[in-house]
Amino acid sequence: MKCFYRYIDNIQISIIIENELYEEHKLIFDSLFITFLDYQKKGFFNNYLYYIYKSKNNLNEIIHNYKISDSADNDWIFSLINDLENFYADILNCTVLHGSCIQIEGKNILLIGERWSGKTTLTQYLTIDMKCGFVSDDCIYLLNNMLIGFGMPLPVRGEKIDNTYKDFFIGATVDSDGTNRILYAPPNIVERVFSVDSVIFSKYVESKNANIIKLKSGEALERLIRNVRSKSTMSTLFNDMVRISKLSDCYVMQYPSCNIAYEMILGVIFDEK
């Protein structure tokens, strides 16, 4: 079996993958567990185990957390990513935000957006084209004043590989809506950050009217709460969201292109008018 592990705030997470499955899709699994360490020895693991098998017939013991990943299914990668995100949320037992977290020239930025708002495409541009640090896309785990990421590949909507990003391509999948996704792996992974400098509620618009408007902390708090994916307790959720909304500069941004969005973000985080 192929084994990965990671410690997060004294919590050990262990991933165990059937050898045959791992060898068939090594590039994908190495990207999914880019923030984990490789471990070869036996008898190392604790109760936080997640098994990945190719077939249910290969299960040889009673286990609680496992995933059957049959690569004949078009959606197996997307389904596995969703399962892992939920597994991590259960173990960490913390507030989980739906959004991306990136690092631009030492500044930690949350990108929050509704579905189809262009958030993942913008994250792709920032983390690959502009070489920004990549913490996480889709799920941001807030634990003990840290923002934890797993650096999993970006599932960008599309049917063909963009030649601009061919060196970062790791696979293709289909999401729960039946939409084709191309998976790209950003090169500069940041496992965790300890503060948020800015929160950007972003939305792609086809018009040329680009704008970015600062929010009051109360408005930002309401928007953050609407984008919570899961929580441990209501009090923890509220405290996490209040801290971010009060200690971070928060903005609403509409942008017609990723390069314009990048310039606008630079403008506000470095107070360039």
Secondary-structure map:
Layout: E1 2-8, E2 11-17, H1 19-24, H2 26-32, E3 37-38, E4 49-53, E5 66-68, H3 76-92, E6 95-98, E7 100-104, E8 107-112, H4 119-129, E9 133-136, E10 139-143, E11 146-148, E12 154-157, E13 169-174, E14 180-184, E15 192-193, E16 198-204, E17 211-214, H5 217-226, E18 228-230, H6 234-247, E19 249-255, H7 258-269
Parallel strand pairs: 2-4, 4-5, 8-16, 16-19
Antiparallel strand pairs: 1-2, 1-3, 6-10, 6-18, 7-8, 7-9, 10-11, 11-15, 12-14, 13-14, 17-19
Helix pairs in contact: 4-7, 5-6
Through-space gap between termini: 55 Å
What characterizes the major β-sheet? 6 strands, mixed
Q: Which CATH C-level class of the largest domain is it?
A: Alpha Beta
Report the radius of gyration as a whole number of Å: 19 Å
Shape-level CATH architecture of the largest domain? 3-Layer(aba) Sandwich
Please provide the count of β strands. 19
- Number of domains as seen in the coordinates: 2
> What class do helices, strands and sheet pairing give?
alpha+beta
Specify the number of helices.
7
Task: Note down, in words, how this protein is organized.
The model has no long low-confidence stretch (mean pLDDT 90). It is built from 7 helices and 19 strands. It has helices spanning 19-24, 26-32, 76-92, 119-129, 217-226, 234-247, 258-269, and strands at residues 2-8, 11-17, 37-38, 49-53, 66-68, 95-98, 100-104, 107-112, 133-136, 139-143, 146-148, 154-157, 169-174, 180-184, 192-193, 198-204, 211-214, 228-230, 249-255. The protein has 273 residues and is α+β, with helices and mostly antiparallel strands. Strands 9-7-8-16-19-17 form a 6-stranded mixed β-sheet, sandwiched between helices. A 5-stranded mixed β-sheet has the order 3-1-2-4-5. The chain folds into 2 domains: 2-72, no CATH class; 95-269, Rossmann fold (3-Layer(aba) Sandwich), CATH 3.40.50.
